Amino acid sequence: MDNGGKKTVEFLIETQGELQKVAWPTKYELVGSTVVVLVSVVVIGIFVLGVDWFVSIIMGYIGVL
């Protein structure tokens, strides 16, 4: 095996070792985090929608739109 092949094998072995050290979330933690992200996206989306609507109304009153 050439030097590049040895480095690749070494990299893959080290990667496997590092992945075994990772503290993977439980199913409960994963579902909880997903819910938090989805709720945050919806709340921020509604906020941006409201700001856009408000700015559109203001721009309409001053004649820009």
TrEMBL record:
GO terms for molecular function: protein transmembrane transporter activity. Pfam families: SecE. InterPro entries: SecE_bac (IPR005807), SecE_sf (IPR038379), Translocase_SecE/Sec61-g (IPR001901). Keywords: Cell membrane, Membrane, Protein transport, Translocation, Transmembrane, Transmembrane helix, Transport. GO terms for biological process: intracellular protein transmembrane transport; protein secretion; protein targeting; protein transport by the Sec complex. It is a single-pass membrane protein. It comes from the Bacteria. Belongs to the SecE/SEC61-gamma family. This is Protein translocase subunit SecE. It comes from Candidatus Brocadia carolinensis. The gene is secE.
